[in-house]
Amino acid sequence: MVKKRLFIAFNLPAEACRRINRGLEEAARLYHYAGKEFPPSLRWRMAPEASWHITLLFLDYQNEELLSNIAAAMANVAARFSPPIIELDRISYGPQGHPKHMWVNGSTETSAALKEIKSDLENELVDNGVNFKYEAKKFQTHITLATFPQEGDEPLVPLDIKLDPAITFQPQSLDLMESDLLRGVKHYSLLQSASFGGYN
Asked: How far apart are the C-alpha atoms of 63 and 71, rounded to whole Å?
């Protein structure tokens, strides 16, 4: 029985990626001002631009035969919502308290709007016979730009870059993505899309 490691996400338009790259340039300047290289350690793993996305719901390993059930749930949910407005407003470390990533963060309003879609999607997936692990933690819109060790390296350079103006876009669809590990590097593939209400 073939299993696939899946998640449901929003992919980014080209202009959003260009703005994020400018934010990374600002992060590099802050490190250089502090007398450090960027990235500061070979143990930092920078996420390539092609992998940037906003994860809405992680499904982990699912039987391939359930792909149609997942696609049906996504289509039902997407049809009930207009395209959400996604606003990305700062670059910082995350999660708070135990940072191990560099994130682009979504605004509070964005996280609230996406949480509504996520909750509806969770219910619809269960109704379609798809099992997954519920996440108890508060949903926070973010894009992972880098992952680094939590211990053993030098202290992090303070980082809180406000994106002004904020990066704003409206995704046209929910995207079902597959995650593969190729030569030690995560690779993501688009399997299915479900258009929001008003898009075909």
From this structure: 13
